[in-house]
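About this split. The held-out portion is used to measure sequence recovery: a designer receives only the structure tokens and must propose an amino acid at every position. Recovery is the fraction of positions where the proposal matches the reference. Here is one held-out target exactly as it appears in the evaluation file.
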């Protein structure tokens, strides 16, 4: 048994929660139950209001409020799915509103809290002590794991975390909450890891070890993509995924629902309806009733019959003021032409295909990676029509020559993958960075640029003579030139010739050390370190030795070393407390009488390390002393979202860090 699995077995219950735009799915496992298979993942189905025969595996993401102030919550989930049984104000599709300035964020957050609170209560009631080996819900060791779409910015993810906690998750001492695994990565974990340790032999044949796979999770509100190279593994051992490339787009079945509602409303306006049965309300009702959902899921490439949806109240004589009934409605059923529905589906399928083309061609052209397998999951991905259109396109595209696989449980792959990912202690050990990450710094300018680097440019490393200390110094100079030579040579034409400090030294200001470039492969277990220094006046109190490191990102794989690209944005500042660095590790400068006689001010130089761990959706950055014995800053998380914020620095002291 792996150490990761043994660690996971400390939990009594692991819950994977896929909070979706249209429906929410939950999977679970009992890793601490000695009588149960720790790898067995089940789907939670004990949702309130789910009728026998209904698809209770996922609960609708719907709320119904009282129409009268103060608008109390009346129903949620299955109870709010049918507006005829619970009249009031219906709220749905609100997941896509979080972080969107076009919508009232306080109201959206309130909806999140209410819905997540209902989910929490249902889970608490669904796991009594009899299911937790006699342990109460409050005392059990429970891990809640939430996925997030790749379209969410880091600030949106952080807001979602807060709302999850406010809804009740993590309120007890032994309850843990984890938020942040992107949805397509959860799918990848599910498809790669399961009981036998082998790849799923899904539609299209088995996935191939060592080959890149494009995972497409086409859900309700977003379609999320990731490309992962399948690592090699021995039988019965976890397989890890490497070289992950991530992308997201607002494509989903929700937009088909919205378009269908508009189509039905337009068709119903041809009737002279009474105010109690107006076209808009009737269209909403028809879209929310099971008839539409059932027909939508049955819709496929070889279904030639028209789309048929019952019209509520049509047989009621008050429904129409005219006895003339349109030929599109017969027997209380609205018949919509197949071509109309195809048009609604194609409006989502076409951008999905375009994204698949973009990703596969981008990887082939820029990285030499040829995607041979595409795996489709999600609610929209479960559609036979969507599967047919994507497979048809792939077969016609000779440049791709990929095989299409369909997830074995497309609508539940995310929540199951969350649990599997937790049971095996993580699946992704390396991935491609979605953006370039950089640190704003100063680079020292030599008195004579050409004389300093002439020998380094022309003399091979093996010919560098002298003693060991000379060799180390010259090799350090060569490394410095390789890293910063372009900056120093271009500084003058960029208008950044030099900045003179209090000691008379010349620096190139506002350079960027891009320590990770976009599309560069990084490893989650191999942090990246950079050595920097900063200077303080000698008479400054030790507790005042604080510096601020500006962290920036760029969507370019070769961003400007001067940080002047239009795509470069500040995300945050790292506050570094250097007051705890021991005196013997602090270098004093300009303390002799000669230096002071010529006007150089005494100061101290403090060196430190900045370390970054690049994750799937963000980077965690913190500061250490040179020996990594002391943590000098709180860890900050920087999003891998390609749209950074403006980064207001008006309240941050302008302390500079220097390349060492």
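Reference sequence for scoring:
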């Amino acid at each position: 048994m792996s150490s990761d699995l043994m660690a996971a077995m400390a939990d009594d219950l692991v819950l994977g929660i896929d909070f979706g735009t249209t429906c929410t799915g939950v999977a679970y496992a009992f890793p601490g139950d000695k009588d149960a298979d720790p790898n067995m993942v089940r789907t939670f189905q004990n949702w309130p209001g789910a009728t026998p025969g209904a698809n209770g595996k996922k609960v609708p993401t719907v709320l119904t409020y009282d129409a009268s102030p103060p608008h109390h919550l009346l129903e949620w989930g299955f109870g709010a799915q049918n507006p005829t049984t619970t009249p009031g104000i219906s709220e749905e599709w609100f997941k896509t509103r979080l972080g969107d300035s076009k919508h009232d964020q306080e109201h959206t957050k309130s909806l999140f809290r209410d819905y997540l609170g209902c989910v929490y209560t249902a889970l608490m009631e669904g796991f009594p002590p009899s299911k937790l080996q006699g342990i109460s819900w409050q005392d059990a060791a429970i891990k809640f794991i939430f996925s997030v779409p790749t379209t969410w910015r880091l600030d949106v993810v952080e807001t979602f975390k807060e709302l999850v906690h406010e809804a009740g998750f993590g309120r007890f001492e032994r309850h843990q909450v984890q938020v942040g695994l992107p949805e397509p990565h959860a799918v990848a974990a599910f498809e790669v890891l399961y009981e036998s340790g082998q790849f799923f032999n899904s539609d299209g044949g088995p996935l191939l070890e060592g080959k890149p796979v494009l995972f497409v999770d086409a859900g309700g509100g977003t379609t999320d993509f990731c490309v992962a190279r399948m690592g090699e593994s021995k039988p019965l051992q976890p397989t890890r995924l490497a070289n992950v490339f991530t992308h997201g787009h607002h494509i989903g079945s929700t937009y088909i629902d919205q378009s269908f509602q508009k189509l039905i409303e337009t068709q119903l306006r041809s009737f002279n309806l009474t105010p109690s049965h107006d076209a808009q309300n009737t269209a909403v009702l028809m879209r929310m009733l099971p008839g539409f959902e059932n027909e939508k899921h049955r819709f496929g490439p070889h279904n030639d019959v028209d789309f048929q949806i019952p019209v509520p109240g049509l047989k009621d004589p008050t429904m129409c003021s005219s006895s003339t009934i349109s030929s599109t409605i017969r027997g209380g059923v609205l018949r919509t032409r197949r071509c109309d529905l195809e048009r609604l589906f194609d409006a989502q399928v076409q951008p999905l295909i375009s994204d698949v083309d973009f990703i596969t061609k981008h990887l082939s052209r820029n990285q030499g990676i040829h995607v041979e397998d595409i795996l489709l999951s999600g609610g929209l991905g479960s559609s036979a029509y969507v599967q047919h259109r994507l497979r048809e396109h792939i077969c016609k595209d000779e440049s791709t020559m990929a095989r299409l696989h369909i997830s074995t449980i497309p609508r539940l792959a995310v929540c199951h993958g969350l649990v599997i990912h937790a049971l095996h202690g993580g699946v992704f050990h390396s991935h491609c960075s979605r953006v370039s990450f950089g640190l704003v710094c100063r680079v020292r300018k030599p008195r004579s640029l050409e004389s300093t680097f002439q020998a380094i440019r022309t003399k091979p490393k093996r010919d560098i003579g002298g003693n060991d200390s000379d060799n180390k110094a010259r090799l350090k100079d060569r490394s410095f030139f390789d890293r910063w030579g372009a900056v120093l040579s271009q500084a003058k034409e960029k208008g950044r010739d030099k900045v003179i400090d209090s000691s008379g030294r010349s620096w190139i200001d506002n350079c960027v050390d891009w320590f990770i470039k976009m599309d560069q492969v990084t490893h989650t277990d191999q942090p990246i370190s950079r050595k920097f220094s900063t200077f303080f006046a000698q008479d400054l109190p030790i507790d005042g030795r604080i510096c601020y490191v500006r962290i920036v990102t760029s969507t370019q794989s070769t961003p400007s070393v001067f940080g002047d690209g239009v795509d470069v944005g500040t995300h945050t500042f790292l506050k570094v407390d250097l007051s705890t660095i021991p005196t013997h590790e602090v270098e004093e400068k300009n303390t002799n009488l000669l230096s002071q006689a010529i006007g150089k001010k005494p100061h101290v130089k403090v060196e430190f390390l900045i370390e970054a761990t690049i994750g799937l959706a963000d980077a965690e950055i913190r500061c250490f002393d040179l020996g990594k014995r002391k943590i000098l800053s709180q860890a900050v998380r920087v999003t891998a979202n390609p749209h950074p914020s403006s980064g207001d620095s008006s309240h941050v002291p302008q302390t500079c860090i220097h390349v060492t």
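Annotator remark: The mean pLDDT is 78.
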